[in-house]
Amino acid sequence: MRLPTALGPGARVALIAPAGPLRPDELDESIANARSLGWEPVPGAHVLRRDGYLAGSDAERLLDLNVALRDDRIDGIWCARGGYGTMRLLREIDYAAMRRRPKSLIGYSDATALHAAFGVHSAVVTLHGPTARGVLTDFSRDSFVRACITQRDSCGVAAAARTLHDGRAEGRLVGGNLALLAGLAGTPYAPDYRDAILVVEDVGEPVYRIDRMLRQLELAGSLSELAGIAFGHFTEVRNGDDSHARGLDVVLREIAALAGVPTVAGIPLGHIADQWTIPLGARAELDADRCELRVELG
Length: 298
Description:
- The structure is a single chain.
- The protein is built from 8 helices and 14 strands.
- The protein has helices at residues 24-36, 58-70, 95-100, 112-121, 138-148, 178-184, 207-219, 248-259; strands spanning 12-16, 40-43, 76-79, 104-107, 126-128, 156-157, 162-165, 168-177, 196-203, 228-235, 263-265, 278-280, 283-287, 292-296.
- Helix 1 (24-36) links the parallel strand 1 and strand 2.
- It is globular.
- The N and C termini lie close together (11 Å).
């Protein structure tokens, strides 16, 4: 996997909305975040368009992404928000442009579709990190700067994590949002899970659906190929009023046992304020006993 050039002072960073719609005040916040990092923000021409739950038509969202990929004056691409709609664009993305000049692609949640597709079709490391409109806490900013600007290990010991299956593992980092990974299973855009360390999170899903999506990956043979698993946070989990609901930890422990690889749960990954920026496609080492993830960059 090729590592894009670091985004140093003066880097020109495109701001795009490949999924859900962006409000004008959220674009202002995105621009301010980019400038606070010493970057020159370049909003996409259609970034404020709206078509229901999408940020404009597929053609408009795709054009903003492909223009940024093809423009040699653009150094990085930062997704302003998540939502839904990115996977609608995957067939028509200019993967050759990303291969020709790798650029830092930053985002999470629905941007998982881009991380997976660029990993498979462009062989480029991408950055699973905060969206441009989000608040960068001190914790998140520190990891973000290390991943995007200084290109040093952006992870470390996850103090709040727990061990589900002990051991150590080495491999490429793959993953992101569980719903997107399940949605991509069986398509030409699914990540290559062979000998990889899976990092995964989700938001607003009942435990039974988390169970189902993880089982889908297991039935597809993806989990049996892994070297390790690092579960992030599954926030806003809903079980409703079902007195027979199963706990999330039970489900995650079952998956760890099925995979039979070093596994931790609770790393700073997900729809949370304090999150790591994780270079997907980079090599890493997971020490499940210490709940530590170390990334190799450079």
